[in-house]
């Protein structure tokens, strides 16, 4: 989760970089120029590796750059199909193993074909360092009673602002991003791309359906009376995605989060096969299952024990610890 | 999924390589020597990229090597903490963007610090090529009736062999890998590491509990009578993992697959936070939820519509297509 958040941040930075670069191309100035520069990293003193991923080939490092706190993010770049021919002809191979039809090598590529994306945050604040620090998660067991006595009071006290959601619903923000709209006040919703999706390819399609009806905080508030709403989102959401992106329902994963990241009912639509953050069984609930469960038991989500992960720095986790539940 | 399967294969190869290397160190011979070799890849002609992952920085390529079919697998290596100092001092930086406290660069590292793991399969058979080919998945909707009329007859006709499971249960194989055993014929089980886990660190802990009782194919066969079995696996599995690996239940994701990859009841124990293949909501079912569902409705898994992904080359998918269900 820490990696994903950090990854998202890098991507945002790169978007900024692109914009800066294109502004520069149109205007001039120093920002965005790609130049070979003095190697500022040769002065970098590592304090601590904040997190890393062997799978994603990235690392987040806290250290000092000229006596200032800095965070350095390194991430190997994807292997590009258009450079393969050059990579094969221009590299050095070191044989590791040969056995029958299988052989393995360490390939040393020309540096310019095998770059490492590098981001420097300097001076970095305590907040930056904490953000990139790997966060352990714990699985919390929440009975219906726990929800009433621990979770609900915490949510209410925090009064997490969902003003940004209301801005979307009132078309004060992001109106140009809306993919589909059903204006019915009871079963209506808006469908729009999640921020994580750049909309450049459907491989990582990610849309969010936000209910127009206010006051449904999460899965825990759902009863049989919400079935028409849920069925409407499921049906019309799938139709809109088929029409706009030519993806049939059999290529979609449609689910809710518990705990959600904001307490206004919303549904996630992602492409099947795309390992979206938060699509794991410990946090996601298939909308189709939610509908079936409510059909057979109107009190299913009021009474059931639900399980979900919380990060160490989540305030709700402290409440569960205080209650002796962890 | 294709990536994961392929990744698994590479890892197996590397295990083989390691073994070959250590055999060699003890014995001599050609296998396992690490030598700079003629660049056989300079002759490689790409036919097709079979699959790739921008997230994992790998690529699987089908092509020709000296007129023979070959598959080349390239994967960038993880960034190693112990080479950071050398990486920072010895690399060239190209500035991409500078904006306030943020700056981004393309880092060109010395080739030997930034290798690409390369695997060659040559000559490659049609089976190899198919194995590494990215496979689309479809989400299948299976009602209780569909299970009886489509899935169950397919499973029975295929008669997937679970002899290897019986070999484990009878201690004819893998006996030295058993982490915990409850010999009770009704509620007993064996707990052992999954092949995907190298047991070197608990970060990617992955164990499987296999029931001693035979004839329970999957989730679909479970009724209230299996509650003691499921509760026993849940409880004793968690205790054994705490004792052996010092991981408490709050750090574990305990689940079943539907469809399972083999039809003898087994339960997955993975570390929370490790994105294990198959832990997504579309395939995994938390054991805690399964227990609750059976407690409140003994026929839950007999009657419920279940959703699961199937790869294009899965024979069961053809059956659903023939039945007009996709």
UniProtKB/TrEMBL annotation, chains A, B:
What does the entry give for GO biological process? deadenylation-dependent decapping of nuclear-transcribed mRNA; mRNA processing; RNA splicing
Q: Where in the cell is it found?
A: Cytoplasm; Nucleus
Which reaction equation describes what this protein catalyses? a 5'-end (N(7)-methyl 5'-triphosphoguanosine)-ribonucleoside in mRNA + H2O = N(7)-methyl-GMP + a 5'-end diphospho-ribonucleoside in mRNA + 2 H(+)
Name the catalytic site residues: 266 (nucleophile)
Keywords, sorted A to Z: Acetylation, Cytoplasm, Hydrolase, mRNA processing, mRNA splicing, Nucleus, Phosphoprotein
| Keyword Iron-sulfur included in the entry's annotation | no
Cellular component aspect of the GO annotation = nucleus; P-body
**What is its biological role?**
Decapping scavenger enzyme that catalyzes the cleavage of a residual cap structure following the degradation of mRNAs by the 3'->5' exosome-mediated mRNA decay pathway.
Q: Which SUPFAM superfamilies match?
A: HIT-like, mRNA decapping enzyme DcpS N-terminal domain
Q: Which PANTHER family match?
A: HISTIDINE TRIAD HIT PROTEIN MEMBER, M7GPPPX DIPHOSPHATASE
Which top EC class is given?
A: hydrolase
One GO MF term attached to the UniProt entry: RNA 7-methylguanosine cap binding
Family according to the record: Belongs to the HIT family.
The Enzyme Commission number assigned here is 3.6.1.59
Note the subunit structure.
Answer: Homodimer. Associates with components of the exosome multienzyme ribonuclease complex, such as EXOSC3 and EXOSC4. Interacts with NDOR1.
For the keyword DNA-binding, the answer is: no
What name has this protein been given in UniProt?
m7GpppX diphosphatase
Q: Which residues does the annotation say bind substrate?
A: 164, 174, 194, 196, 257-268
What domain of life is recorded for the organism? Answer: Eukaryota
Taxonomic source organism: Pogonophryne albipinna
TM segments? none
InterPro entries membership:
DcpS/DCS2, HIT-like_sf, Scavenger_mRNA_decap_enz_N
């Amino acid at each position: 989760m820490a990696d994903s958040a950090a990854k998202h941040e890098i991507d945002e930075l790169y978007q900024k970089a692109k914009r800066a670069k294109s502004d520069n191309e149109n205007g001039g100035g120093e920002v965005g120029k790609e130049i070979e520069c003095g190697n500022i990293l040769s002065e970098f003193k590592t304090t601590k590796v904040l997190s890393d991923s062997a799978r994603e080939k990235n690392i987040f490092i806290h250290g000092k750059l000229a006596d200032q706190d800095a965070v350095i993010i390194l991430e190997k770049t994807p292997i590009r199909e258009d450079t393969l021919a050059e990579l094969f002809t221009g590299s050095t191979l070191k044989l590791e193993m040969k056995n029958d039809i299988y052989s393995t090598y360490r390939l040393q590529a020309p540096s310019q074909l095998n770059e490492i994306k590098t981001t420097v945050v300097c001076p970095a604040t305590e907040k930056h360092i904490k953000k990139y620090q790997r966060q352990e998660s714990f699985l919390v067991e929440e009975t219906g009673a726990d929800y009433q006595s621990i979770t609900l009071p915490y949510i209410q006290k925090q009064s997490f602002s969902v003003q940004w959601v209301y801005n979307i619903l009132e078309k004060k923000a992001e109106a140009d991003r809306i993919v589909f709209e059903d204006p019915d006040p009871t079963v209506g919703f808006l469908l729009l791309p999640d921020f994580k999706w750049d909309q450049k390819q459907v491989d990582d399609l990610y849309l969010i359906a936000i209910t127009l009806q206010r006051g449904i905080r999460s899965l825990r508030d759902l009863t049989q009376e919400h079935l028409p709403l849920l069925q409407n989102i499921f049906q019309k959401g799938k139709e809109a995605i088929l029409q706009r992106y030519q993806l049939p329902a059999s290529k979609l994963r449609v689910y809710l989060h518990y705990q959600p990241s904001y307490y206004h009912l919303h549904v996630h639509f992602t492409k099947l096969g795309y390992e979206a953050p938060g699509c794991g069984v410990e946090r996601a609930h298939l909308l189709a299952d939610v509908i079936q469960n409510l059909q057979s038991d109107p009190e299913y989500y009021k009474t059931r024990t639900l399980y979900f992960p919380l990060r160490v720095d989540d305030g709700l986790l402290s409440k569960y610890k205080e209650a002796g539940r962890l």
